[in-house]
Queue: 2 jobs
Job 1
Amino acid sequence: MPLLKFFSFIRRGSLLLAALLVLLIVASACLGPQPTPEMLAPTVTPPPSDPEIEVFTWWTAAGEVEALDALVGVFQSRYPGIDFIDAAIAGSAGENARAALAARLQDYRPPDSWQAHAGQEIAPYADAGLLEPINFLFEQYGWLAVLPPQLISLISQEGNIYSMPVGIHRANVLWYNPDLLAQNGIALPTTQAEFLAALETLKVAGMEAPLALAEPWTDTHLFETLLLAALGPKAYAGLWTGVTDWNSPDVMAAIEQFTAVLGYVNADANDLTWQQAAQRLSDGQAAFYVMGDWADGYYRSRGLTLSEDYDWTPVPGTSGVFQFLADSFVLPVGAAHRQAAIAWLTVAGSKVGQDAFNTLKGSIPARRDADRQRYGAYQQAAMSDWNTNALVGSLSHGVVATDAWRSEIEEALQQFRATGDAAVLQATLAAACRTSGPCP
Ligand code: GAL
């Protein structure tokens, strides 16, 4: 009974996930900029007669909202008769939205489309028969030819394609405040040892919390970059396939580095959203922040300028590696407005839609035929790195682990923050690979 299995997975996934079921926050719908006629996406034939479409995302932060609005703007200019119902639910990098989604699915009331990360996060939904394959759209619009093959395999099972990726984000980014580094004579750290030394210099200079941190999922995000730094891309990838031993000394090295850097973070981290932590950096309260490149979208939406107000470098020890994730949209089985959902996927998959969205989001388009010069300097660098770097998937954002496995790791990291027991953390991580991952 795959559906029951799916919901037991949701239940097992996280206590937090269950608790957050009650925290449904529906953001207001916004109209986006109107694209010119030549920017229109390909037409769905026949045009949908659905009066509305309800789309679930967790894009409610500055930068995210503008990007979603721009995508909705393309959709509405193409399909002016369809009301866009923005069912975005804020917080926890999608954990809250996925909890609310689980409740809707349990009631057999799926939204017409929802944001899902390409990779393992989608698999349980597909296994439970909750998603329609959308190969027909890939064939109709030639998407197989314009999307990177790595992404196609992450959204496919046994030849069925289950979502349309709209953009690609990078997780292993160290944002920094260039003025603070210059004032304190700090060179850009390229190793984790240099990173610790830089944090210590800032602390000695009187900065209380030089590394910004936010709510618990950002601990997991930070930790996955430290795993990558300690293990390198090959062994990091092996953690998720059962090849790399979670009990190895390299994993312990990542835990030790995690312990060390946590000595430099703000005490109110758990009360902050990722964007509030980003703001600490641009306000000069913190000098560094490990966060995905939606932070670039945030800073730009705040009118800040790359290399003057904020800047970036790969997380020390991860240069030459692009730790990625991809946001995508699905076609649920039983969508009340299926034709409108198909139209939405068509817009999300179009060059016009992707350029409108990603230019504001901080991500790079999933399509390879982007209008490069329309993108910011950070994004142009990310486009080059995506093409030349080693690629590994993100843990916190659904690529390498299911939501159940990710939740177990997140809970282990939170317990570790309370106890500081590194040996227990490593043993718990190894156990999580056995219960929720591929480890024997
Ligand atoms: C990620 C998502 C990004 C961004 C981020 C913070 O999981 O893929 O698009 O929204 O959460 O909300």
Job 2
Amino acid sequence: MRIGIACYPTYGGSGVIATELGKSLADKGHLVHFISYALPMRLDGYWGNFFFHEVEMASYPLFEFPMYTPALASKIVEVARFEKLDLVHAHYAIPHAISAFLAREILNGQIKIITTLHGTDITLVGLEPSYLPVMKFSIERSDGVTAVSRFLKEKTLTNYGISKDIRVIPNFVDTAKYQRIPAEEVRDRFAPNGEKILIHISNFRPVKRVPDAIRVFHEVRKKVPAVLLLVGDGPDRSACELLVREFEIQESVKFLGKQQELVPLLSASDIMLMPSQSESFGLSALEAMSCEVPVISSSVGGLPELQVHGETGYIAEIGDVTRMARYVIDLLTNQAKHRQFGAACRRRAVENFDVHTIVNLYESYYEECLQQKGER
Ligand code: GMT
């Protein structure tokens, strides 16, 4: 197949999934064309069957705002014509599905559009009155729609009053790459006195509730010598730095910023914290699980579809810092249980969310959509 992938290039789950999906499809012999305003973060390695097309945005004094949606649509049209694309896969509905719709109109329906809903495109941004009608329209007019969890599918159907068939295809991880490796050096650097290592990875947006991760850690540290690694960056970072200073725990909390290589950090970690307000799937939690790191998370969104409470980690109500801390302490002070949870995490990642299994699901779905006449 000749596939176009429109996605965000930045750090963030939808861009990661889009990029890894495209690379895997290219490995399987498909021709994949990534279309975005910058080179996607994880688009590295062998450039055999995949290509990158940058969306150029002309500026003009009259334009008060960037005109990304039409620029992306024009680029999709160009790539679809020159490269004879069969389909365009839009990751994160706003604005990718809208641009793809425009492109298909211009191309007289010569391409199919698959839209993957990732999370805040549905649960937050898309619900803004200024976007809602366009979101609903672009979902309804896609040839195929997937959601990364049952939770997100239900939310889409109810929030937007849509009756479309939505296929649930969960996030995935390359379990061959994401596996626990010896990480003594990392442990020695961050926890030289044998402290336990807690990790949180996110884009530091309010929806991630990073301050809760710090509060949980603050409680844990009263009982178990530990350090906290905070990976990522974003709008809440300064507030988090302040909170750490307020608690006077700056010696034990390391702000690592954005990181490319997560496997050594995860391999050195004992527990991952994901106290999110909303999480349609929780890709970083899956990556941690694949590296045998049990996850303590909130009970929101798609997290209960990923995590098995009492097996791969524990789930608590949003904001229940005390309970989360209790769960962390329970695991950190019971070595056998911790090991057992780590093994269960790895098993669950390999058996249910491995890249090969899930990419096959996307591939079959593409074939189904291509066989449909007109829009579905
Ligand atoms: O909304 C975000 O945090 C970013 C978003 C993205 O597009 O990068 O993440 C969402 O998509 C990921 C990949 O499908 C999911 O694993 C995340 O759970 C989801 N985030 C939220 O729902 C908050």
